[in-house]
Structure formats: C-alpha cells, structure tokens
Write a structure and sequence with these properties.
The protein is α+β, with helices and mostly antiparallel strands. The chain has helices at 2-7, 38-58, 93-109, and strands at 15-21, 27-31, 63-67, 71-78, 81-88. Strands 2-1-5-4-3 form a five-stranded antiparallel β-sheet, sandwiched between helices. Strand 3 and strand 4 (71-78) form a beta hairpin. The protein is globular. It starts with a helix and ends in a 17-residue tail after the last helix.
C-alpha cells in the first residue's frame, strides 16, 4: 500500500522516485529505479534520521530540501517517518508539495510500520 502511494508522486514532472523511512531509518517503502540498492538505504537512512533530529532540536522544521547540481532531495517528517523524494533541479515546488501532502495523508492513515522492506521498484510508472 505504501509503495503504491509513493508511485503517485511520479505524476509530478521531474520526480525521479521516492522512499519512506521508519523511525530508525529503516526502509519501509520505495519507488525508485533498481540502481538504488538496499545497501544505499542502510547507510543513508540513519543519516537522514540524525539530520532530522538536529533540525528538530534547533528549529522544529518538518521539511527540508537538499540541493545538488542536477537534483534535489526533499525530506518531510510524517510522525516518526521520513518521506524522501528525489527530483530534478527544475521540479515544480507547489505541485510537489501538494503531492507530498497527499502521500503524507496515506502514510498517516496506515497504522504501524510494514514488517518487511518493500520490493524494489523497476523505476517505471504506468
């Protein structure tokens, strides 16, 4: 169910994929090309959680965007989870925020965390 909610983010132009992390950075769901192996999330997940803890302590911010040369990583707290969306640099910000709000509602409606990691996505959106 959560992977299906994530796939809706691809309706926004320039969204390349997304993933959802649990409280300790564990991968809960993903909608990314197969090039993003599970080992990546094992390293990145806990780092994003620590980054969130830092922002919680300093400003109470619930969202942040990391800008790279050609990409952006948008991170939004949803309770104890983190919704992360990888986009191109020219993504439409308001459209992305609206889509992330819809996904956040789906995540909030889902009780508990899935027991197993979601299977890798093939990176295609139908």
């Amino acid at each position: 169910m959560l992977s299906q909610a994530l796939s809706g983010l691809r309706d926004v132009d320039d969204v390349q994929g997304s993933f959802l992390l649990g409280e300790r950075g564990r991968l809960l769901a993903r909608d990314l090309p197969a090039a993003f192996h599970a080992e990546i999330f094992a390293r990145v997940g806990p780092r994003l959680v620590r980054l969130r803890e830092m922002f919680d302590a300093i400003s109470g911010a619930t969202a942040l965007t990391m800008r790279f040369t050609d990409h952006k990583l948008h991170v939004r707290a949803i309770g104890s989870k983190l919704l992360c969306v990888l986009t191109g640099a020219s993504v439409n910000g308001p459209a992305l925020r609206m889509a992330m709000n819809l996904v956040a509602r789906s995540v909030e409606a889902h009780s508990g965390e899935p027991e197993l990691e979601a299977p890798p996505s093939n990176g295609r959106h139908s």
